[in-house]
Every structure is written in structure tokens, then in C-alpha cells.
Amino acid sequence: MTLAKGTVSERMGGLGTENAFVVLKEVNDLIAQGKKIMNFCIGQPDFKTPKHICDAAKEAIDNGLHGYTPSSGIPALRKAAAQYFTSTRGLDYTADDIVIACGGKPFIWYTIFAVTDPGKGHEVIFPNPGFPIYESMIKGMGAVPVPLYLREDKNFNFNIGELREKITPRTKLLILNSPHNPTGGVLSKAELEEIADICIKNDIWVYADEVYSNLVFDAPFASIASVPGMKDRTVVVDCASKTYAMTGWRIGYMANTVLAPHITRLVTNSDSCAPHPNQVAVAAALTGPQAEVQEMARIFRERRDIIVPGLNAIPGISCRKPGGAFYVWPNVTDACRLTGCKDSEAFRIRLLYEAGVACLADIHFGPRVPDEGQHIRFSYASSADDIREGLSRIVQFMEKNTA
Questions:
Q1: What pTM did the predictor assign?
Q2: Positive or negative CA dihedral for 198, 201, 203, 205?
Q3: Do both 264 and 353 map to the same domain?
Q4: Edge-first strand listing for the sheet containing 360-361
Q5: Which of 287, 306, 334 is the last residue in one of the domains?
Q6: What is the rounded CA–CA span in Å between residue 26 and residue 250?
Q7: Which candidate, 8, 68, 216, 326, has a CA 20 to 30 Å from the CA of 269?
Q8: Over pLDDT 90: what percentage of the chain?
Q9: What are the C-alpha distances in Å from 306 to residues 100, 133, 206, 301, 327?
């Protein structure tokens, strides 16, 4: 079948992707060929979903709860999510403020759709490096993406002065991600207060991507929504994927009094509703015992404390200790030079095919930040033994290929 020229829209042609899944296919192809790959490319906990959560889903299926639900989500989950946000953010949310979706990711485009108009030059400021779907969805919704560079010497925060410079009369939304993917950076309460002051003065919405909120290691978690004056202008998003090892269950939840009814209509227009048994399972997750969640967080911190010094011990690599999530963002500028790799992507490819170590390059998270060198991302959502084996392979690769 031959399609007419121009069948696919320009907008579709410009839509980005999430390169972790592209690299994951490379990894799986090599594994299918019998290669032993240490896989640090995908942000997926290697734990099983806790049993009481799975049991809740099974019971829901056995009880016939497998039809449509309200687009905003089942009442039990909305109530549980409201209580969760209230207790963890120190704010007063009700079930009416909550919307449930198929994971956290849909809320990115739901929010951009709700607060910007295509063709009017409305701008959305987003972190770079950052989760690639931010920029993809900004463009896809017809808004203008404005990257805000994260700096290594600021522990991968941005300069407040740079944020002020980026704001124009067309700025509608600021996207924040803390703890951050890909760097693991965490915004402090003081930093959030500075950012909030700017957003209030310039009447800007904030999308607070807080899906790693339960994985903060060195200080209490802080949300910008908790800063006085920010609750109503902040779309707070969290999900079950990372906290409860439920990536494939696809349940996320957001809180915002003003936008909840509008985003509910967007759910109606897209997915209709999230899967009913999965919603029941996440309600059980939020209201049930949290001991396994705390244990997973403890193990992630232990892994961080293995991979960071391990990377820093390798000539040519330097790695800051992240405050949260389960990612590290080492600087490999000197490693590229020592091994004759032109950039981080070439280094990433050689690590995969020559050392059997899978990671992602900085270009998978947006254009490189000017004057910041070359970086790669490791997800340490893998066992401590796999992390040590991966580090050993990188050491051997560097020894073999350094002139």
C-alpha cells in the first residue's frame, strides 16, 4: 500500500520519544543473542509489587470489578490519594481535588493542554537535562518549549537568575521534577521558596513532577505546593510506579482544586478511565502497610552508596552523590578523551557493545547543557551484585582502551 505524501502530520513528525525504551530494545536484542548485559538503562525497580497489593487486585477481579469507572477515578482511590497528599505535603486536599490516570505520564500533556493554547506562542519552561516527554509534549500540544539548564556545580539545580531571564509575558507553566530524572537532584525547601516567589509574582502555573517523592535520602522531601500561595497554582503529580514497584500497573494521581474537573474531561476524552482492578490495588497500596516501601528506599540508598564511590574510583569519571530517585549522572568528559570517544553517546555505545554495560547518554535527555561536558545516566534499580559487576566491567574497559 502506498500512502499519499503528507499523510502523517507535521506535529506527529516532530514528536519525541523516550530513549530508555529504544536502548532497552538494543539490550534485549543482545541478550537474545546470548550476551550477558548489565542493564542500567531503564528506570524500573527490580522489586516485586508487595503481596497485599496484588491480592487486592485479584480480589477486585474475582468480585467483578472490571468495568468502567468514573473518569476521575474510583472514590476509594481518590480519597486515599487525597489523604496521601495531605499527609506528605502538609496541605488540605479532598477527593474532589484528585484525578486518577494511567500512570503519571498522561498528566504532563493533560496539564499543558489545560493551561496553554496552540498558535499563541504560550511558553512552558522545563528542566534540561530532563525527562524527554516534557519537551515532546510541549511541542505536541502546540506550545513553545523553553529549556532551563541544570548545572553540575549547583548539584543539578538551575540558577535562579536564569529562571528569571527565561520568563516572558507568554510564560504559562514551569515544570519542576524533584527528585529529578536523570540526575537524582533534589530541590531544597529554600530553593523551592525562591522559585515559588517568582511564580507567584509572574502568575505562572507549576507542574510538580514528584513521582520519586518517597525516594529522598538525605533530607525530608519538600514540595513546592507546600510553600504559602502555591497550592492552587501547583499541579502535584505522584504515582505508584516507583514507590510500590508498580511500573506496569499504570496508575498515577494528581492534585489541584482548579484543574481537577478540566483534567477529568481530558481523561474522558482519552483513556475514559484507568483500569478498575489496578485502581483498587493502588488504593490498597496507599492505605496499607508501608514497611516494604521503606525497605525498598533503604536498599536504593545502599545501592547509591555503592555506585557513586565506585564510579568516582574510575579514572576519567566523576560523579556527584544524588539526593534522591535511583539515578546517577556521572561526568565522563575525561573518560571520552581517554578512550578516544568523540562524545558521551559514542562512549555509551562502546560500553554496551564492548563491556556489556547498558546506560543512557546525556543526549537522551535533551541537548547537552552548554559548557557542562559529557554525561551518562545509570539507573541503580539493579542488585548490588549487578552494580559491582557493572563497575568492574567499566574498569576493565577503561584499562583496555586508555592509551
A1: 0.95
A2: positive
A3: no
A4: 327-328, 376-379, 360-361
A5: 287
A6: 24
A7: 8
A8: 92
A9: 36, 30, 35, 9, 12
